[in-house]
Amino acid sequence: MNKLFQFLETKLMPPLNKLANFRFIRAIMQAGVITVPFTIVGSIFLIINNLPQIIPPLAPFFENTLLKFSPLYTVVTTMSIGSIALFYNLATAFYLTDSYREEDSKLSSFVGALLGLFAFLMTIVQVDISDGAAKLVQQSGESSIVYNGISIEGWVTRFGGVGIFIGIITAVIATQIYRFCSKKNITITMPEGVPDGVSKSFASLIPAIFIAFVMLLINGILAFFHTDLHALLSKPFEFVKELTGSWLGIVVIMLLIHLLWAVGVHGTAIIKNSFINPILLVALTENIEGASNIFAGDFVNMYLFIGGAGSTLGLVLLMVFFAKSDQLRLLGRAAILPGLFNINEPVIFGAPIVYNPYLILPFILAPIVNVTISYFATSMNLVNKVISGIPWISPVGIGAFLGTGGDYRAILLAFINLFVSTLIYYPFFRMYDAKLYAEQTSA
Fold first, then answer.
1. What average pLDDT does the chain have?
2. Parallel, antiparallel, or unpaired: how do β-strands 150-152 and 133-136 relate?
Protein backbone atom coordinates (compact mmCIF):
# COMPACT_ATOMS: atom_id res chain seq x y z
CA MET A 1 0.00 0.00 0.00
CA ASN A 2 2.85 2.38 0.78
CA LYS A 3 4.38 1.61 -2.61
CA LEU A 4 1.04 2.38 -4.25
CA PHE A 5 0.79 5.75 -2.47
CA GLN A 6 4.41 6.50 -3.41
CA PHE A 7 3.71 5.69 -7.07
CA LEU A 8 0.61 7.91 -7.11
CA GLU A 9 2.46 10.78 -5.44
CA THR A 10 5.55 10.68 -7.65
CA LYS A 11 4.19 9.52 -11.02
CA LEU A 12 0.48 10.33 -11.29
CA MET A 13 -0.02 13.47 -9.21
CA PRO A 14 2.57 15.84 -10.74
CA PRO A 15 1.34 15.70 -14.36
CA LEU A 16 -2.34 15.75 -13.34
CA ASN A 17 -1.81 18.65 -10.93
CA LYS A 18 -0.03 20.51 -13.70
CA LEU A 19 -2.88 19.75 -16.07
CA ALA A 20 -5.49 20.90 -13.56
CA ASN A 21 -3.71 24.24 -13.17
CA PHE A 22 -3.85 25.10 -16.87
CA ARG A 23 -5.91 28.23 -17.31
CA PHE A 24 -8.23 26.79 -19.93
CA ILE A 25 -8.89 23.68 -17.81
CA ARG A 26 -9.86 25.88 -14.86
CA ALA A 27 -12.05 27.97 -17.17
CA ILE A 28 -13.83 24.86 -18.49
CA MET A 29 -14.43 23.65 -14.92
CA GLN A 30 -15.92 27.01 -13.95
CA ALA A 31 -18.03 27.06 -17.12
CA GLY A 32 -19.38 23.60 -16.26
CA VAL A 33 -20.45 24.80 -12.82
CA ILE A 34 -22.10 27.98 -14.10
CA THR A 35 -24.14 26.10 -16.74
CA VAL A 36 -25.66 23.63 -14.25
CA PRO A 37 -28.69 25.86 -13.39
CA PHE A 38 -29.69 25.98 -17.07
CA THR A 39 -29.74 22.18 -17.38
CA ILE A 40 -31.79 21.89 -14.19
CA VAL A 41 -34.32 24.56 -15.24
CA GLY A 42 -34.69 22.95 -18.66
CA SER A 43 -35.15 19.54 -17.06
CA ILE A 44 -37.97 20.77 -14.80
CA PHE A 45 -40.16 21.46 -17.83
CA LEU A 46 -39.01 18.23 -19.43
CA ILE A 47 -40.30 16.35 -16.36
CA ILE A 48 -43.67 18.10 -16.75
CA ASN A 49 -43.94 16.52 -20.21
CA ASN A 50 -43.26 13.11 -18.64
CA LEU A 51 -45.93 13.39 -15.94
CA PRO A 52 -48.25 10.89 -17.70
CA GLN A 53 -45.48 8.26 -17.47
CA ILE A 54 -44.60 9.22 -13.89
CA ILE A 55 -48.20 9.04 -12.65
CA PRO A 56 -50.08 6.82 -15.16
CA PRO A 57 -53.50 7.02 -13.41
CA LEU A 58 -53.51 10.79 -13.95
CA ALA A 59 -52.34 10.59 -17.58
CA PRO A 60 -55.74 11.65 -19.07
CA PHE A 61 -55.88 14.63 -16.72
CA PHE A 62 -52.38 15.86 -17.71
CA GLU A 63 -53.06 15.31 -21.42
CA ASN A 64 -56.20 17.42 -21.23
CA THR A 65 -54.67 20.20 -19.16
CA LEU A 66 -50.91 20.85 -18.83
CA LEU A 67 -49.75 19.04 -21.95
CA LYS A 68 -51.98 21.16 -24.13
CA PHE A 69 -49.57 24.01 -23.40
CA SER A 70 -46.45 21.93 -24.08
CA PRO A 71 -45.38 24.00 -27.14
CA LEU A 72 -45.34 27.05 -24.86
CA TYR A 73 -43.36 25.81 -21.86
CA THR A 74 -40.95 23.50 -23.72
CA VAL A 75 -39.41 26.68 -25.11
CA VAL A 76 -37.64 26.82 -21.72
CA THR A 77 -36.00 23.44 -22.39
CA THR A 78 -35.06 24.45 -25.93
CA MET A 79 -33.45 27.70 -24.81
CA SER A 80 -31.58 26.10 -21.90
CA ILE A 81 -30.50 22.52 -22.65
CA GLY A 82 -31.03 23.07 -26.39
CA SER A 83 -28.73 26.12 -26.28
CA ILE A 84 -26.18 24.81 -23.78
CA ALA A 85 -23.21 25.24 -26.16
CA LEU A 86 -23.81 29.01 -26.13
CA PHE A 87 -23.62 29.13 -22.33
CA TYR A 88 -20.49 26.95 -22.27
CA ASN A 89 -18.83 29.14 -24.90
CA LEU A 90 -19.65 32.44 -23.17
CA ALA A 91 -18.64 31.16 -19.73
CA THR A 92 -15.36 29.60 -20.92
CA ALA A 93 -14.32 32.78 -22.75
CA PHE A 94 -15.35 34.93 -19.77
CA TYR A 95 -13.42 32.95 -17.14
CA LEU A 96 -10.39 32.45 -19.37
CA THR A 97 -10.17 36.18 -20.10
CA ASP A 98 -10.71 36.88 -16.41
CA SER A 99 -7.71 34.71 -15.51
CA TYR A 100 -5.52 36.75 -17.88
CA ARG A 101 -6.68 40.03 -16.35
CA GLU A 102 -4.26 39.37 -13.49
CA GLU A 103 -1.45 39.99 -15.99
CA ASP A 104 -3.17 42.52 -18.27
CA SER A 105 -5.73 44.86 -16.70
CA LYS A 106 -6.67 46.26 -20.13
CA LEU A 107 -8.57 43.06 -20.89
CA SER A 108 -12.31 42.96 -20.26
CA SER A 109 -13.89 39.63 -19.28
CA PHE A 110 -17.20 40.70 -20.80
CA VAL A 111 -15.56 41.64 -24.11
CA GLY A 112 -13.69 38.34 -24.06
CA ALA A 113 -16.99 36.49 -23.67
CA LEU A 114 -18.54 38.35 -26.61
CA LEU A 115 -15.52 37.68 -28.81
CA GLY A 116 -15.71 33.99 -27.89
CA LEU A 117 -19.38 33.95 -28.89
CA PHE A 118 -18.54 35.71 -32.16
CA ALA A 119 -15.95 33.04 -33.01
CA PHE A 120 -18.39 30.24 -32.15
CA LEU A 121 -21.22 31.69 -34.24
CA MET A 122 -18.91 31.71 -37.24
CA THR A 123 -18.74 27.91 -37.08
CA ILE A 124 -22.51 27.40 -37.21
CA VAL A 125 -23.10 27.97 -40.92
CA GLN A 126 -22.07 25.06 -43.19
CA VAL A 127 -20.32 26.13 -46.37
CA ASP A 128 -18.94 23.94 -49.14
CA ILE A 129 -16.37 24.93 -51.77
CA SER A 130 -16.55 23.07 -55.07
CA ASP A 131 -16.15 23.94 -58.76
CA GLY A 132 -14.23 27.05 -57.77
CA ALA A 133 -17.08 28.63 -55.79
CA ALA A 134 -18.48 28.62 -52.26
CA LYS A 135 -22.09 27.72 -51.58
CA LEU A 136 -24.29 27.28 -48.50
CA VAL A 137 -25.17 23.67 -47.77
CA GLN A 138 -28.82 22.73 -48.35
CA GLN A 139 -30.18 19.37 -47.14
CA SER A 140 -33.51 17.94 -46.06
CA GLY A 141 -34.25 14.89 -43.93
CA GLU A 142 -37.09 13.34 -41.97
CA SER A 143 -36.22 14.96 -38.64
CA SER A 144 -33.83 17.76 -39.58
CA ILE A 145 -32.92 20.11 -42.41
CA VAL A 146 -29.93 22.23 -43.35
CA TYR A 147 -31.31 25.53 -44.64
CA ASN A 148 -28.83 28.08 -45.97
CA GLY A 149 -26.04 26.27 -44.15
CA ILE A 150 -27.78 26.10 -40.76
CA SER A 151 -28.75 22.69 -39.38
CA ILE A 152 -32.18 22.86 -37.75
CA GLU A 153 -34.13 20.31 -35.70
CA GLY A 154 -36.83 22.63 -34.43
CA TRP A 155 -33.96 24.81 -33.20
CA VAL A 156 -30.36 25.40 -34.30
CA THR A 157 -28.78 21.96 -33.83
CA ARG A 158 -25.26 23.17 -33.14
CA PHE A 159 -26.40 25.36 -30.25
CA GLY A 160 -27.16 22.18 -28.29
CA GLY A 161 -24.93 19.56 -26.71
CA VAL A 162 -23.24 18.64 -30.00
CA GLY A 163 -21.71 22.11 -30.12
CA ILE A 164 -20.18 22.19 -26.63
CA PHE A 165 -16.65 21.18 -27.61
CA ILE A 166 -16.50 23.58 -30.57
CA GLY A 167 -17.84 26.26 -28.22
CA ILE A 168 -14.93 25.59 -25.85
CA ILE A 169 -12.34 25.52 -28.65
CA THR A 170 -13.55 28.77 -30.24
CA ALA A 171 -13.65 30.45 -26.82
CA VAL A 172 -9.97 29.57 -26.33
CA ILE A 173 -9.03 30.75 -29.85
CA ALA A 174 -10.86 34.07 -29.47
CA THR A 175 -9.41 34.71 -26.02
CA GLN A 176 -5.85 34.08 -27.20
CA ILE A 177 -6.28 36.46 -30.14
CA TYR A 178 -7.79 39.11 -27.84
CA ARG A 179 -4.93 38.68 -25.37
CA PHE A 180 -2.31 38.83 -28.15
CA CYS A 181 -3.73 42.08 -29.52
CA SER A 182 -3.79 43.63 -26.05
CA LYS A 183 -0.29 42.44 -25.21
CA LYS A 184 1.16 43.79 -28.49
CA ASN A 185 -0.94 46.95 -28.14
CA ILE A 186 -2.68 46.25 -31.46
CA THR A 187 -5.81 48.10 -30.53
CA ILE A 188 -7.65 51.39 -30.89
CA THR A 189 -7.01 53.63 -27.90
CA MET A 190 -9.57 56.32 -27.22
CA PRO A 191 -8.60 59.66 -25.63
CA GLU A 192 -9.21 60.35 -21.96
CA GLY A 193 -12.72 61.40 -21.06
CA VAL A 194 -14.37 58.91 -23.40
CA PRO A 195 -16.83 56.70 -21.46
CA ASP A 196 -15.39 53.35 -20.42
CA GLY A 197 -18.01 51.35 -22.35
CA VAL A 198 -17.22 53.20 -25.60
CA SER A 199 -13.48 52.80 -25.04
CA LYS A 200 -13.77 49.04 -24.50
CA SER A 201 -16.01 48.59 -27.52
CA PHE A 202 -13.43 50.22 -29.81
CA ALA A 203 -10.64 48.28 -28.09
CA SER A 204 -12.34 45.07 -29.19
CA LEU A 205 -12.62 46.12 -32.84
CA ILE A 206 -9.15 44.98 -33.96
CA PRO A 207 -9.35 41.63 -32.10
CA ALA A 208 -12.78 41.06 -33.68
CA ILE A 209 -11.30 41.65 -37.15
CA PHE A 210 -8.45 39.23 -36.41
CA ILE A 211 -10.91 36.61 -35.11
CA ALA A 212 -13.06 37.02 -38.22
CA PHE A 213 -10.12 36.42 -40.55
CA VAL A 214 -8.80 33.47 -38.52
CA MET A 215 -12.20 31.77 -38.43
CA LEU A 216 -12.79 32.49 -42.13
CA LEU A 217 -9.41 30.92 -42.93
CA ILE A 218 -10.23 27.80 -40.87
CA ASN A 219 -13.73 27.55 -42.34
CA GLY A 220 -12.45 28.11 -45.88
CA ILE A 221 -9.75 25.44 -45.68
CA LEU A 222 -12.19 22.91 -44.23
CA ALA A 223 -14.93 23.83 -46.73
CA PHE A 224 -12.45 23.11 -49.54
CA PHE A 225 -12.27 19.56 -48.16
CA HIS A 226 -16.10 19.45 -47.86
CA THR A 227 -16.20 19.52 -44.05
CA ASP A 228 -16.18 21.98 -41.13
CA LEU A 229 -15.03 22.18 -37.50
CA HIS A 230 -18.09 20.42 -36.12
CA ALA A 231 -17.89 17.54 -38.59
CA LEU A 232 -14.11 17.31 -38.18
CA LEU A 233 -14.36 16.99 -34.40
CA SER A 234 -17.24 14.54 -34.51
CA LYS A 235 -14.99 11.60 -35.48
CA PRO A 236 -12.57 11.66 -32.52
CA PHE A 237 -15.42 12.76 -30.25
CA GLU A 238 -17.47 9.72 -31.25
CA PHE A 239 -14.51 7.54 -30.26
CA VAL A 240 -14.22 9.21 -26.85
CA LYS A 241 -17.98 9.05 -26.40
CA GLU A 242 -18.00 5.33 -27.20
CA LEU A 243 -15.23 4.81 -24.66
CA THR A 244 -17.17 6.63 -21.93
CA GLY A 245 -20.32 4.79 -23.00
CA SER A 246 -18.84 1.37 -22.26
CA TRP A 247 -18.74 -0.37 -18.91
CA LEU A 248 -14.94 -0.67 -19.02
CA GLY A 249 -14.56 2.98 -19.93
CA ILE A 250 -16.65 4.11 -16.95
CA VAL A 251 -14.71 1.76 -14.64
CA VAL A 252 -11.40 3.28 -15.79
CA ILE A 253 -12.76 6.80 -15.22
CA MET A 254 -13.95 5.89 -11.70
CA LEU A 255 -10.61 4.24 -10.95
CA LEU A 256 -8.65 7.34 -11.95
CA ILE A 257 -10.94 9.67 -9.98
CA HIS A 258 -10.61 7.65 -6.78
CA LEU A 259 -6.89 7.01 -7.10
CA LEU A 260 -6.43 10.77 -7.13
CA TRP A 261 -8.69 11.18 -4.09
CA ALA A 262 -6.58 8.52 -2.34
CA VAL A 263 -3.64 10.92 -2.23
CA GLY A 264 -5.67 14.03 -1.43
CA VAL A 265 -6.21 15.38 -4.95
CA HIS A 266 -9.76 16.37 -5.94
CA GLY A 267 -10.19 13.67 -8.59
CA THR A 268 -13.79 14.65 -9.26
CA ALA A 269 -12.80 18.20 -10.20
CA ILE A 270 -9.78 17.22 -12.30
CA ILE A 271 -11.28 14.35 -14.30
CA LYS A 272 -15.07 14.46 -14.11
CA ASN A 273 -15.73 18.21 -14.00
CA SER A 274 -13.08 19.08 -16.59
CA PHE A 275 -13.28 16.30 -19.16
CA ILE A 276 -16.25 14.02 -18.53
CA ASN A 277 -19.09 16.46 -17.76
CA PRO A 278 -19.23 17.95 -21.29
CA ILE A 279 -19.52 14.40 -22.71
CA LEU A 280 -22.26 13.54 -20.20
CA LEU A 281 -24.11 16.71 -21.16
CA VAL A 282 -23.97 15.82 -24.85
CA ALA A 283 -25.26 12.33 -24.03
CA LEU A 284 -28.08 13.85 -21.95
CA THR A 285 -29.24 16.08 -24.80
CA GLU A 286 -29.20 13.07 -27.12
CA ASN A 287 -31.28 11.07 -24.63
CA ILE A 288 -33.82 13.88 -24.47
CA GLU A 289 -34.17 13.52 -28.23
CA GLY A 290 -34.68 9.75 -27.98
CA ALA A 291 -31.16 8.24 -27.77
CA SER A 292 -30.23 5.50 -25.29
CA ASN A 293 -26.92 6.58 -23.75
CA ILE A 294 -26.35 4.88 -20.39
CA PHE A 295 -23.61 7.18 -19.10
CA ALA A 296 -25.40 10.53 -19.38
CA GLY A 297 -26.40 13.53 -17.32
CA ASP A 298 -25.93 12.95 -13.60
CA PHE A 299 -25.65 9.15 -13.80
CA VAL A 300 -22.59 9.39 -11.52
CA ASN A 301 -24.35 11.33 -8.75
CA MET A 302 -27.53 9.27 -9.09
CA TYR A 303 -25.98 5.82 -8.68
CA LEU A 304 -22.23 5.96 -8.01
CA PHE A 305 -21.42 8.92 -5.76
CA ILE A 306 -23.96 8.07 -3.07
CA GLY A 307 -22.86 10.39 -0.31
CA GLY A 308 -20.08 11.73 -2.54
CA ALA A 309 -17.04 10.25 -4.26
CA GLY A 310 -16.39 6.70 -3.08
CA SER A 311 -20.07 6.13 -2.19
CA THR A 312 -19.24 7.07 1.39
CA LEU A 313 -22.79 7.44 2.74
CA GLY A 314 -22.72 3.74 3.68
CA LEU A 315 -19.50 4.31 5.63
CA VAL A 316 -21.04 7.30 7.44
CA LEU A 317 -24.07 5.20 8.44
CA LEU A 318 -21.73 2.52 9.81
CA MET A 319 -19.94 5.20 11.83
CA VAL A 320 -23.19 6.55 13.26
CA PHE A 321 -24.74 3.22 14.27
CA PHE A 322 -21.86 0.79 14.80
CA ALA A 323 -18.66 2.69 15.65
CA LYS A 324 -17.09 1.94 19.03
CA SER A 325 -14.33 4.53 18.78
CA ASP A 326 -15.20 8.08 19.73
CA GLN A 327 -13.39 9.42 16.67
CA LEU A 328 -15.54 7.60 14.11
CA ARG A 329 -18.79 7.87 16.07
CA LEU A 330 -18.49 11.65 16.45
CA LEU A 331 -17.29 12.04 12.87
CA GLY A 332 -20.29 10.04 11.64
CA ARG A 333 -22.71 12.32 13.49
CA ALA A 334 -21.02 15.41 12.04
CA ALA A 335 -20.86 13.99 8.49
CA ILE A 336 -24.33 12.44 8.18
CA LEU A 337 -26.17 15.62 7.13
CA PRO A 338 -23.62 16.73 4.49
CA GLY A 339 -23.38 13.09 3.34
CA LEU A 340 -27.12 12.95 2.62
CA PHE A 341 -26.48 15.77 0.12
CA ASN A 342 -23.39 14.13 -1.43
CA ILE A 343 -20.86 16.32 0.39
CA ASN A 344 -18.20 14.06 1.87
CA GLU A 345 -15.03 16.11 2.41
CA PRO A 346 -15.53 15.76 6.22
CA VAL A 347 -15.22 11.97 5.84
CA ILE A 348 -12.47 11.95 3.22
CA PHE A 349 -10.22 14.20 5.28
CA GLY A 350 -11.65 13.50 8.74
CA ALA A 351 -11.70 9.70 8.93
CA PRO A 352 -9.37 10.07 7.05
CA ILE A 353 -9.72 8.11 3.82
CA VAL A 354 -6.77 9.91 2.22
CA TYR A 355 -3.58 7.84 2.71
CA ASN A 356 -5.52 5.40 4.90
CA PRO A 357 -4.79 1.76 3.92
CA TYR A 358 -7.83 0.57 5.93
CA LEU A 359 -10.40 2.60 3.99
CA ILE A 360 -8.85 3.35 0.62
CA LEU A 361 -9.63 -0.09 -0.85
CA PRO A 362 -13.41 0.04 -0.24
CA PHE A 363 -13.36 3.72 -1.26
CA ILE A 364 -12.10 2.64 -4.71
CA LEU A 365 -14.05 -0.64 -4.89
CA ALA A 366 -17.56 0.59 -3.90
CA PRO A 367 -18.13 2.96 -6.84
CA ILE A 368 -16.74 0.39 -9.29
CA VAL A 369 -19.23 -2.22 -8.03
CA ASN A 370 -21.99 0.40 -8.18
CA VAL A 371 -20.97 1.21 -11.77
CA THR A 372 -21.31 -2.45 -12.69
CA ILE A 373 -24.75 -2.84 -11.10
CA SER A 374 -26.09 0.45 -12.51
CA TYR A 375 -24.64 0.04 -16.00
CA PHE A 376 -26.11 -3.40 -16.58
CA ALA A 377 -29.41 -2.56 -14.89
CA THR A 378 -29.79 0.38 -17.28
CA SER A 379 -28.58 -1.53 -20.35
CA MET A 380 -31.12 -4.32 -19.61
CA ASN A 381 -33.89 -1.68 -19.36
CA LEU A 382 -34.54 -2.50 -15.72
CA VAL A 383 -34.50 1.29 -15.18
CA ASN A 384 -35.02 4.15 -17.60
CA LYS A 385 -32.15 6.04 -19.18
CA VAL A 386 -31.18 9.43 -17.76
CA ILE A 387 -33.26 12.12 -19.48
CA SER A 388 -33.14 14.97 -16.99
CA GLY A 389 -30.55 17.15 -15.30
CA ILE A 390 -30.58 17.18 -11.50
CA PRO A 391 -28.73 19.12 -8.76
CA TRP A 392 -25.68 17.07 -7.74
CA ILE A 393 -26.70 17.49 -4.10
CA SER A 394 -29.94 15.53 -4.62
CA PRO A 395 -30.28 12.91 -1.82
CA VAL A 396 -30.07 9.19 -2.60
CA GLY A 397 -33.09 7.98 -4.56
CA ILE A 398 -34.56 11.43 -5.19
CA GLY A 399 -31.92 12.32 -7.76
CA ALA A 400 -32.33 8.94 -9.48
CA PHE A 401 -36.12 9.37 -9.62
CA LEU A 402 -35.91 12.86 -11.12
CA GLY A 403 -33.02 12.08 -13.45
CA THR A 404 -34.88 9.18 -15.09
CA GLY A 405 -38.01 11.23 -15.61
CA GLY A 406 -39.88 9.71 -12.68
CA ASP A 407 -38.90 6.02 -12.77
CA TYR A 408 -39.65 4.49 -9.36
CA ARG A 409 -37.31 1.59 -10.14
CA ALA A 410 -34.40 4.03 -10.17
CA ILE A 411 -35.06 4.76 -6.47
CA LEU A 412 -34.74 1.05 -5.74
CA LEU A 413 -31.50 0.82 -7.75
CA ALA A 414 -30.00 3.76 -5.86
CA PHE A 415 -30.81 2.17 -2.49
CA ILE A 416 -29.46 -1.20 -3.67
CA ASN A 417 -26.19 0.57 -4.47
CA LEU A 418 -26.23 2.19 -1.03
CA PHE A 419 -26.74 -1.21 0.59
CA VAL A 420 -24.00 -2.86 -1.48
CA SER A 421 -21.50 -0.08 -0.79
CA THR A 422 -22.28 -0.35 2.94
CA LEU A 423 -21.50 -4.08 2.81
CA ILE A 424 -18.23 -3.38 1.00
CA TYR A 425 -17.17 -0.87 3.63
CA TYR A 426 -18.26 -3.00 6.60
CA PRO A 427 -15.24 -5.36 7.09
CA PHE A 428 -12.74 -2.56 6.50
CA PHE A 429 -14.67 -0.25 8.82
CA ARG A 430 -14.67 -2.94 11.53
CA MET A 431 -10.89 -3.33 11.32
CA TYR A 432 -10.23 0.39 11.36
CA ASP A 433 -12.72 1.07 14.14
CA ALA A 434 -11.21 -1.74 16.24
CA LYS A 435 -7.75 -0.23 15.78
CA LEU A 436 -8.94 3.25 16.83
CA TYR A 437 -10.90 1.82 19.78
CA ALA A 438 -7.84 -0.11 20.97
CA GLU A 439 -5.75 3.06 20.80
CA GLN A 440 -8.50 4.96 22.64
CA THR A 441 -8.76 2.45 25.49
CA SER A 442 -5.00 2.10 25.88
CA ALA A 443 -4.69 5.87 26.12
1. 85
2. unpaired
What is the per-residue pLDDT for 298?
87
Cα separation, 432 vs 350, whole angstroms: 13
- What pLDDT digit, counting tens, does each position of 329-364 carry? 998 898 888 888 888 878 887 788 877 778 888 999
CA distance 313 to 419: 10
Which of 176-180, 188-192, 195-199 is the most confident on average? 176-180
164 alpha carbon, distance to own chain's centre: 11
Global pTM reads: 0.74
In angstroms, the CA 325 to CA 439 distance is: 9
Cβ atoms 313, 424 nearer than 8 A: no
The pLDDT > 70 percentage for the chain reads 89
Contact 242, 256 (CB under 8 A): no
Question: Could you tell me whether strands 139-140 and 133-136 are parallel, antiparallel, or unpaired per DSSP bridges?
Answer: unpaired
Using CA atoms, how far residue 415 sits from 186, 248, 418, in Å, is: 60, 23, 5
Rounded distance, CA 360 to CA 310, Å?
9
When computed from its CA atoms, the radius of gyration of the chain, rounded to whole angstroms, is: 25
Nearest to 300 by CA among 328, 280, 278: 280
Kindly list the distances between the CA atom of residue 247 and the CA atoms of 136, 254, 304, 353, 390, in Å, as whole numbers in the listed order.
Answer: 41, 11, 13, 26, 22
Kindly report the length of the chain.
443
The torsion angles phi and psi of 218, rounded to 5 degrees, stand at -60, -50
CA 227 to chain centre: 28
Taking alpha carbons only, the member of 419, 396, 269 closest to residue 341 is: 396
CA dihedral sign of residues 179, 185, 188, 190: positive
Backbone angles phi, psi at 134, to 5 degrees: -95, 145
Question: For residue 295, what is the DSSP state?
Answer: S
Query: Please, are residues 393 and 342 in contact by the beta-carbon 8 Å criterion?
Result: yes
